[in-house]
Amino acid sequence: MFSSSSTMTDGDYDYLIKLLALGDSGVGKTTFLYRYTDNKFNPKFITTVGIDFREKRVVYTTNSPNGTTGKTFKVHLQLWDTAGQERFRSLTTAFFRDAMGFLLMFDLTSQQSFLNVRNWMSQLQANAYCENPDIVLVGNKADLADQREVQEKQAKELADKYGIPYFETSAATGSEVDKAVVTLLDLVMKRMEQCVEKPSADANTSDGSSKLSAAPAQQKKCAC
Amino acid sequence: MTDTMFGSENEQWVCPNDRQLMLRAKLHTGWSIHTFQSERQRKAQALEKRELDLIMSVIHRAEQLELIEQHRIGRLVERLDNMRSSAMGNGLSQCLLCGEVFGLLGSSSVLCLDCCMKVCTKCGIETTAGGQKRTQWLCKICSEQREVWKRSGAWFYKALPKHIRPIKDSILDNRKPVIERGEQLPVARSAPISYTWAQSRVYLSESDGSDAELSECSSDRKTFASETNQRRDSESSGGQVQTPQSSFTSPTRGNVHIESPSSLVSEQSSSSSFNPGLEDEVIDHSRTLLTPPALSRAGSLRSSSTSQKSEGPQADANRDEDDLDQAFGATALVASKKEEEPDVEGYDSDDSTTLGTLDFSLLYDQENNALHCTINKAKLPVPRYKKGLKPMDHNGLSDPYVKLHLLPGASKANKLRTKTLRNTLNPVWSETLTYYGITDEDMVRKTLRISVCDEDKFRHNEFIGETRIPLKKLKPNQTKNFSNCLEKQLPIDKTDDKSLEERGRIMISLKYSSQKSGLVVGIIRCAHLAAMDANGFSDPYVKTYLKPDENKKSKHKTAVKKKTLNPEFNEEFFYEIKYADLSKKTLEVTVWDYDIGKSNDFIGGVSLGINASGERLKHWFDCLKNKDKKIERWHTLTNELPGSGYND
């Protein structure tokens, strides 16, 4: 459904969507975004200083109720990368407000980063543009099976508690990386449709996969 | 976003929002450079120059993307305006866009969902929501409007963000000046566009008023930063609006709850006050056919104040009454003998009846602690023990009036008096005098003494006769009629009189407020105070103390009520004290007579606390037991000064 194209510095796109990655330091936020935008892996760990962002042009296709291919739009993604260290906390939270969707990341090989997911959820509810923003929970470093500390069942229970989707990704192998971002983009686009066409309900039940991701969206309030 | 944060010189200055201030604090720019931080904190949080440069480069990169975005939004807005200006029809009988006429011979029309205008099927767009089978139509203008709203991010910022509209003559050589000039234009043009959409959105979100308000409020903003800040402010102000409402509702309910019992008590009080008057009126009417009720009521109104001398018409009415009494003289004599009580002092029947008879009625209103004494009439003989002397008056008649006292403790405080009737031995007063603050304890202990006297202008008033009624004979809320023989004046037990002289009564309310964590003392009113001035009145006021009081901070005073022995204060004083400490305290209430230029006179006082006794101790205990409940009681003022060394 999504195809990537080279990043262009012109205004030839239909939507500008701003997403933000947050989580503890060292969980792989920068590496994850680098894998998504450039499809490359940098094993070296370089601490992000404060704030950074990457861009990517993708093609988004809406699902029509009759099953045929809907309209396609060019979406320009601005992917904000935040520093997970405490000393940059007040700087990075200032950027939460302008993000339309969030990638909440933790490290599957670090139990502490998983426990801190609750703290990051509190930060989101306090600093985001509304109290229930679109969030996707991402457990990174899934390729390190021998060092795994967080079981998939635990993470799914936490995600179900918050009503958000959960993906286990690997920036090293690129597994599930695209799917996580695509799911978040889907949630944001659906919320946009609901905001503009508020009188009519946007219940897209024909597609099975979209029904799964639409169910949490229906539980949330409209941003308008 | 970031462009507004570090606004260019051409822009209008906008007060920075919280996020900008936060960012400036971290970057040590703007106002926050001088914020108070300890040196250690500042070093720990300070960013290195290299880190600062990295962050600034990221922000600069974001600004470039933002500029591209603003141009793109400007093109969208331009396209929408062109579509609007090219509309030709009126939207009613013609297509809104192409102006084609509708009708039987014309094309069919559809109604736009957003603007409610009619368009032909070619100029409309059919939209089918997934969940609904019914198709909805939008005109191309409204459809384009929705697209602009989505693509510009206005759905997210709740208003059209800042944008740069294209210039018509695109000359490459003048590109930079054109861009700079273009930046100023959106301020003027974006508002009407947003407002138009807000109008449309108001229609869409008709059921949700608050959302419409937010949209309208947002549409008034012109700049991006204000819009972002306004959204946050709208949310927070929305919360603030709700919080005062909830806090406002709570005291309202509390007030209603407090006022309801007060209203009920007030209604009961007023209704109870009315009933005794009605009963008295009936009694008066049955006994004195010739006396109009208005005159009787007038007599009652004057009962608390000084007696006034009767006027001529009154005397004429009494003379008519005199004739009637003579006609029924034999009947009265028989009735008088029947009601005769055993003579304790050994006088024969002739001597006991020679002082005359008195008709009166008593009613004890238990709820209001009021004793109503209605003095109807008397039949007085010519005193025989002065037969050899010259008569008291030239015409052999008297000027009688009636005095009331409550025994023991007779003093000026509890004296009541009727008016004086001139030149008659058969006076008809038809007057009701009322004692207030009479408790059940008083009804068991007290005796009412009724004295008939002869007023003399130039000499001392003469005593005619008296009668005494133990108040325990009366049943509460039940009128009892008396027709007693008058007797000689009995000696007063002076020992009892000297122990504690009564100085009147005071009604006090007590309530311990858990909410305020203190004692609320209410001085309601006083009754039958002792007269301290030569004019027969006092100018009373009340002082209250909560003892022990090291700094004398617990002193409170009421206002001075001029020239009255029955003042109404209705004042409340608050003492901040813990509930655990309240039981160790004693409330002292003193009543004083205010004198200008002289030291004030002490009228009476009362103490409430653990060391008190009787009704006062009960009142204090009831206050401690029942928190947050207002308890009113009458208390007797005594001449004993609470505490020593008190002077006003």
TrEMBL record, chain A:
Q: Which InterPro entries match?
A: P-loop_NTPase, Rab27a/b, Small_GTP-bd, Small_GTPase, Small_GTPase_Rab
List GO molecular-function terms, semicolon-separated.
G protein activity; GTP binding
Keyword annotations for this protein? Acetylation, Disulfide bond, Endosome, GTP-binding, Hydrolase, Lipoprotein, Membrane, Methylation, Nucleotide-binding, Prenylation
Region span, Disordered: 199-224
Task: Give the domain of life.
Answer: Eukaryota
Protein's cellular compartments:
Late endosome; Membrane
GO cellular component annotations, sorted alphabetically? late endosome; membrane
Q: Identify the Gene3D superfamilies for this entry.
A: P-loop containing nucleotide triphosphate hydrolases
- EC number(s) given by UniProt: 3.6.5.2
List the biased-composition ranges (Polar residues): 202-212
Q: How does it sit in the membrane?
A: Lipid-anchor
Protein family: Belongs to the small GTPase superfamily. Rab family.
The name of this protein is small monomeric GTPase
State the species of origin.
Danio rerio (Zebrafish)
**Lineage, opening ranks:** Eukaryota, Metazoa, Chordata, Craniata, Vertebrata
| Name of the gene | rab27b
From TrEMBL, chain B:
Main location per the UniProt record: membrane
Q: Where is the RabBD domain?
A: 41-159
Please indicate if the UniProt record lists Methyltransferase as a keyword.
no
The region called Disordered is annotated at 211-279, 291-321
Report biased composition (Basic and acidic residues) as residue ranges.
218-235
C2 domain: residues covered: 354-484, 502-635
Do the record's keywords include Metal-binding?
yes
Q: Where is the composition biased (Low complexity)?
A: 260-273, 294-307
Q: Give every FYVE-type domain span.
A: 89-147
According to the UniProt entry, its GO molecular function terms are:
small GTPase binding; zinc ion binding
**What name appears for this protein in its UniProt entry?**
Double C2-like domain-containing protein beta isoform X1
